[in-house]
Amino acid sequence: MTVILQEFNHSNVRTDLPDVKPGHIVKVYQKIVEKKGKDKNLEIKERIQIFEGLVIGRKGGTGINATITVRKISDGIGVERVFPLSAPTIEKIELVKIVKTRRAKLNYMRDRIGKATRPKGEIIKQENDKQNKSDKKTDERVAKEVTGEEKNKNKNKNKNEEVKETEKKEEAVKNEKKEDKEIKKQETVKEDKEEKK
């Protein structure tokens, strides 16, 4: 029986969510179903509610029972929600900021007020969007470098062609000079022969 349960748990664990740890600031996108009316006039509306806050704890490891506790301050009042990570109502979890902390549970954050509620520690990286933007920027830089290299190659080709053309012109001028010298020599030889006669 336990083997069947373990297989079921492993098959239903979600792998599309990021690895969330205490100290991370996250946005949790949760589906909320609203029902209005009764039997015949029942209206069902689905909407997504975003809850952004600091992860102060995680339970259940990486299994199907894993939960995270997210805390935010709304109008000066601390609000905490516990989200099961494998729940179908969670559409996605977006990492806003990753802060390296030294504790597994940040329960001391409950006593903090004002600016002290911000977690202290090293900021490792910012939002995934910013990473994507930086990746796009690097791709653009690489593309520009490639186009720059192509332009340099084209410039070098043009320079090489120009150099070859000038060399050809110089050779033609040298050949003309040689021909002129030979013609002059032949004329001087003819003149000498005529004088001798």
Commentary on this structure:
This protein is of the alpha+beta class and 197 residues long. The chain folds into 2 domains: 2-126, SH3 type barrels, CATH 2.30.30; 127-197. The chain contains 2 helices and 6 strands, in the order αββββββα. The protein has a 6-stranded antiparallel β-sheet with strand order 4-3-2-1-5-6, with no helix packed on it. Strand 2 and strand 3 form a beta hairpin. The protein is rod-shaped and about 135 Å long. The N and C termini lie far apart (131 Å). The model has no long low-confidence stretch (mean pLDDT 81).
State the shape. rod-shaped
Report strand %.
25-35%
CATH fold name of the largest domain, please? SH3 type barrels
Q: What is the CATH class name of the largest domain?
A: Mainly Beta
User: Which radius of gyration do the C-alpha atoms yield?
Assistant: 39 Å
Spatial strand arrangement across the major sheet: 4-3-2-1-5-6
Number of helices, where a helix is a run of at least 4 consecutive DSSP H or I residues:
2
Main beta sheet strand tally, sense and closure: 6 strands, antiparallel
Span from first to last CA? 131 Å
CATH architectural name of the largest domain: Roll
H and E order: HEEEEEEH
Number of domains: 2
Structural class: alpha+beta
Mean pLDDT: 81
What is the helix content?
Answer: 40-55%
